[in-house]
Amino acid sequence: MSHHLENLTLKIWRQSAPADGGHFESYRIDSISDEASFLEMLDVLNEKLIDEGLEAITFDHDCREGICGTCSLMIDGQAHGPQRGTATCQLHMRTFKSGDEIVVEPWRATAFPIVKDLMVDRSPLDRIVEAGGYITATTGGAPDANIIPIPKPVADAAMDAAECIGCGACVAACPNGAANLFTAAKVSHLNLLPQGQAERWSRVEAMVETMDEHFGSCTNHGECEAACPKSISLDFIALMHKDYRRAKVKNRKLISQI
Amino acid sequence: MAQTMQSRGPVTGTAATPKKRRKFFVLDFYGTAVGKKYVMAITGIMLLGFVLVHMIGNLKMYLGAEHLNHYGEFLRELLVPIMPRTVVLWLMRGGLLVAGALHVHAAVSLTRLNRQARSVKYQGPRDYQVANFASRTMRATGIIVFLFLFWHLADLTWGWWNASGGEGEFVRGDAYGNVVRSFERVPVSVLYIVANIALGTHLYHGVWSLFQSMGWNNPKFKEWRRYLAVAFATLIVVGNVSFPIAVLAGIVGK
Question: What is the ipTM, given to two decimal places?
Answer without folding.
Answer: 0.92
